[in-house]
Amino acid sequence: MKSKVTLKQLAKELGVSVSTVSKALSNSEEISTQTKLKIKEFATLKKYKPNTIAKNLKNQSSKTIGVIIPNILNPFFAKVFSGIEKRALDRGYNIITGISNESFEKEKQVMELLNNGSIDGFIVSVAEESQTQNKIEHFNDAINSGTPIVMFDRVAKDVVCDKVVVDDFESAFFAATHLINIGCKNIAVLSTIDGLSVGKLRLNGYESALENKSMPNDVKNHIIESDLDLFDEKLAALLNDKSIDGIFAIDEHAATMSHKTALKKGFKIPDQLNLIGFADGAWSRRLTPSLSTVSQHAPEIGECAANLLIDRLEKPFTEFPKYETIVIKTELRYRESTKR
Amino acid sequence: MKSKVTLKQLAKELGVSVSTVSKALSNSEEISTQTKLKIKEFATLKKYKPNTIAKNLKNQSSKTIGVIIPNILNPFFAKVFSGIEKRALDRGYNIITGISNESFEKEKQVMELLNNGSIDGFIVSVAEESQTQNKIEHFNDAINSGTPIVMFDRVAKDVVCDKVVVDDFESAFFAATHLINIGCKNIAVLSTIDGLSVGKLRLNGYESALENKSMPNDVKNHIIESDLDLFDEKLAALLNDKSIDGIFAIDEHAATMSHKTALKKGFKIPDQLNLIGFADGAWSRRLTPSLSTVSQHAPEIGECAANLLIDRLEKPFTEFPKYETIVIKTELRYRESTKR
DNA sequence: TTGAAAGCGCTAACAT
DNA sequence: ATGTTAGCGCTTTCAA
């Protein structure tokens, strides 16, 4: 049953030394063509598979990347994850996954668990708790122990490492400007993620857009509330005001709930009310009317992060580390929830 | 920078032997309390972390599970995945992830890549291509090489291993019966996954429900079409028939599209048309009206699969392997798309 | 061209 | 109570 063939066994059965087999299989010049041939044939016959763990121990590297994300059910992270996986596999790396569930403790626990030879580097999107409380020692610990980190989307500004982000400010600015351009006079902005860096940036982008167009930035049109039940209540109250003609939703929950609540309150979308949200899931297309969104090119973010990390891993240590922050452009997807 | 402390270093600096340090850190009875204390203190001071790779090589086990899923963007798989991750972490295992993208080649490639000591066992949901073409050698290869597999949801019936499935037949039977009970006379059934085992079972369940209630099983009300564009066309054509008063959607695409198309065609849901679909994503709640679904308890499936695998891994080889197939019960979630 | 031997970091049986 | 030694599977220098 357990058949695991080793170099040693091959060597014994062939009557040669272990090192000869090793060299032959790695196509070394030192070995004669015939022995190489013979050994290789025998190895395939025996279904020999080199044991990666042993190889890794030898090389002091695992060819594995630890990916730590807050929540795999969030389609944005799921998409980034696929991007990472794809790129990593292409470049010969495996992915070990940890899900922080937005918890600092879990994030820290998983990172410590993995940072012991299991992985060569981390790709991380910071847990909400770590970000709001600015807990970053565990990141610095990893970096100081020689394990590079690439952060994406939710980035800790005080950690010095490579980063991949989206132009949150600009895309919010652009989206809000679009609402103004199609004629909205009374735009509401909704956020349940003001604790996160990206949430703040998006809100700022919205405010700048209003200012830029000399529109009043009326705080009664703001719902900034991270308690989701409370958020839903406030939203229902706000939408009793039928003069609201535009909504900019900064996160998925806000986008979903404003779509649902507006329909329930009898708004015609997009005739009376135009709706744009930050969203990545397929569900934004599935809604009726479908939702216009700011798309973050999640798969590219993942591929980019994987490239950054692997580049750094494969760069000799002598080269001076210049950390980069790469900004991925977003795209406004015009669907049925906004007027043309 | 690269600080990686080893047992050897600790031993040297403390002037004791490597094995003393090893034993002390693993709290061996053999070592005196004071030396243990001294060594432990020093180890924490030096931030010693045992190298898992070395430990794994020694133990001939990696405490890692390879999870191969067709598509992480599918919320069902994402949920199962979280379940696996949660359970595995609790039981001290890591997860290495491979995404097959429904491709047989990729599935095979990833499995071969990992089955070399990197992982102790696999949890797999079979790629569509492997399932439709019944390609299963790569599974048997893994099993024969001593690596156990647990399959979930999409299961290869000819592979002998532990399995976790949902009672697809019964849940479809139950859902269709519910449609009949609330008064539907002219029910359509929609599937884009008739190539998959689960698709066939669900269709059978639907048919049995009709038969059981002596309803005509009219094939013109069937759309069984895996080409999605073609499916959408056929669906639009079908819904010109305003006498359709119930839809049973066997997969996510069918559920989504029937909701969207029915609204577009002017059906009042649920007054004129009752809709039930197999679905797991949060999006089914987000639709207006929200979608009644057959929920598959995805996280439990994941936890169950992880438990099965780890149980088998930790069972001594002497015990005779009795393979199990565990059936997880589904649940019908009544939402706004069906009459009460 | 081939083989012997050391070593990656750790554990554990076996001395002392 | 502590140390010596061998070995997990592989690579790689060095010797033959």
Structure description:
The structure is a homodimer of 340-residue chains. Chain A contains 14 helices and twelve strands. By secondary structure, chain A is an alpha/beta fold. Chain A has three domains: 44 residues, no CATH class; 136 residues, Response regulator (Rossmann fold); 130 residues, Response regulator (Rossmann fold, 3-Layer(aba) Sandwich). Chain A has a six-stranded parallel β-sheet, sandwiched between helices. In chain A, strand 9, helix 13 and strand 10 form a beta-alpha-beta unit. In chain A, helix 2 packs across helix 3, helix 5 packs parallel to helix 14 and helix 9 runs parallel beside helix 10. Chains A and B meet through helix 4, helix 5, strand 2, helix 6 and helix 12 of A and helix 4, helix 5, strand 2, helix 6 and helix 12 of B. Chain A binds a DNA duplex (16 and 16 nucleotides) through helix 2 and helix 4.
